[in-house]
Amino acid sequence: MTSFAPVASRPYAWPFTGSWSTEDTALFLIDFQNEIAAETRAEDTIAALAPLLSAWRATGGLVLHGRRGFDPTVGLPRVAALRNAARPVDRILPRGTDGWQIVETLAPQDGEPVIDHAGDNAFIGTDLDFLLKRQGIANLIIAGLRTEGAVHATMRSANDLGLECLLLEDGTVTDLPGAKDSILNITRFGYALFGTTAPIAAIKL
Amino acid sequence: MTLSWPVSGSLDLDRTALVVIDMQTDFCGPGGWIDRLGQSFDNTRKPIGPIADLLAAARAAGMTIIHTREGHRPDLTDLNPVKRWRSRVHGVGIGDESNQGRALTRGDPGHDIIPELYPETGEIVIDKPGKSSFHATEFDQVLRARGIEALIVCGVTSDCCVQSTIRDGADLGYDCVLVVDGTAAVESANHQGMVDVLSAYGGRWGAVMPSSSLVAMIEGAGQ
Asked: Among this protein's residues, is B131 annotated catalytic?
């Protein structure tokens, strides 16, 4: 086990317990999939995360990958399907399509759990909570696409479950104007309603 | 393309619930938790009028009405350590003595719903320990038991529990509408940011409508 010093994050040094380690903390990369990455022009975000992912893997810490998409033989819930079809962008794709694949730079390696989720909240209808509990994970460092979509929905749910979350400010992006700032502010409001935020460089392994 | 609400095309009062989130003294009353934190509760009282209008219409139409309350068991066994720690550093810890009993603690005065919007007999009250009404509650079972497919969501705060409930509701397949004047946040900027996000692409997780339109729809469907 490797322990680390608290991360310089806002509004407080993370995690609240004062220390974290590869045993109790996971890196969660949410929905870095081809189509979402293209729509949000996430090249810089992806490039900035690559060194962190390598360093994280070198510590032996848990890496999880979110992958949004629906089973084409099942489809989405009726209302969700109608809303999905009405959107010009940020559409949930059928599993197996090119746009649904995780980008090469951040592709999962053997042994890294991939969480296939049909909606935005990666805890709904998945084994994510179960996996985290089984592995004794208390803290999540989160990056992903889009900031106001799956990232925020999942972080809200993680927070309700008692996980101590840190969102990487330059590890998330969106194409919806103004949304990223709003979400970062809401996340930190009221002494971290949903968690803290920090730049990738603040994670020192 | 912007979808109408409900997406089924017409409002079915038997399959629609009015959900009033966390209109508790702790969030929008004098001496409550927000007040004790030194923050203004002017904003969180603004939705009282629109919510009262919706409650009156829903009661007259015989709709399912659900009130939620955020708070914790008196022994705090359902309070996450991080949530308690943040609230204490922030100023008033959840479960600690406040002006209206213990903050956000079930059974104490601050935790209860404000008199203006108090539940009537036959209305359902869901006590929830988290932000999402679906987290660690029987909310989903209640909706299924009643055959509910659409949710009219109002209450406080828009950036917190209202948004979490709409997001999870959408993922679970409910047809949600946010009552834009029936919700508010402590900070106006966060409220506006949340309304902008939820309104994007014609309603990313559901529709966004004013209370007057919804009252008219309920009254129209009940005739």
From this structure: no
